[in-house]
Amino acid sequence: MFNALLIEKDESGYRTVCTGIQEDRLPEGDVLIDISHSTLNYKDALAITGKGPVVRTFPMVPGIDLSGVVRESAHADFKRGDAVILNGWGVGETHWGGLSQVARVRADWLIRLPDGLTSEQAMAIGTAGYTAMLCVMALQEHGIAPDGGDILVTGAAGGVGSVAVSLLSSLGYRVVASTGRAEEADYLGSLGAADIIDRNTLSGPGKPLAKERWAGAVDSVGSHTLANVCAGVRYGGVVAACGLAQGMDFPATVAPFILRGVTLAGIDSVYCPRERRQRAWSSIARHLDPAKLAAIGKQTIALRDAIPLASELLAGKVRGRVVVDINR
Questions:
Q1: Residue 20: strand pairing partners
Q2: Are 295 and 187 in contact (CB under 8 A)?
Q3: pLDDT digit string (tens) for 114-158?
Q4: Engineered SS bond to 47: which of 54, 142, 152, 310, CB 3.0-4.6 Å?
Q5: Angle at 147 between CA 277 and CA 190, to 5 degrees
Q6: What SS3 state is found at 140?
């Protein structure tokens, strides 16, 4: 028997409860993991509340992230006692996930916990931070150097944004943070943001081209915000797009791409190949300032507290990262 969040949907409705589950109900997989920490992501909050079509099969244990230790393995790549991380791969959507004391998963979905990171730190980073690192890697691979100009980060007080601001500043980039929460200015400054702008300057309908302001950008918002970001990027700049907090639409024109040579780089963290995700995590371990990480991921909750906090996260009332201490 283990404790987990369980989402059920039947004729009586949609509900999420914290309950005990027998281990023989776990789905198939070749690695059994004792989970120590997970996270509460935007996608998890949609699943828990039922406000988005995240869960594909029922019943479902949510949680797209987990970290823990291998208890049993039928795969040559892992053995009992290995510290591992899992992000994405449909876990928490089509396969039971990380908001649980135990998980059985495929070995191909796992990477090793990098040296220098604890399990708790890994979940303070989570999919949000790992996605932020993939965005930074995209900027680097397209030749955007720290001396090339300002980098805009939208949704800067959220999970992806907070880690992106911290990583970029640690790597020597000058970061401009966009947020709708003016009270978070000091927090974003402590992570390394050089300037703060109001998200309202980007969130409405804009022009096909705007003044050239940024060498690159990390966008987790989408919709009009992403369109305006692209319109304001300098010649040859790069925008890494990884989210849709404002919306899935992209009401833009081709002008930034054919007149300024702007690149729009799509970032997928869910099915990213294992080698690239291991490289991203290793880069995070090297470059993310532990003091800044402590500020980003300082909210730690018990498993049962993820249910009420999910609604607050969707309402934009949660700063940075939330770590779930599974055994608390």
A1: 3
A2: yes
A3: 999 999 999 999 999 999 999 999 999 999 999 999 999 999 988
A4: 54
A5: 70
A6: helix
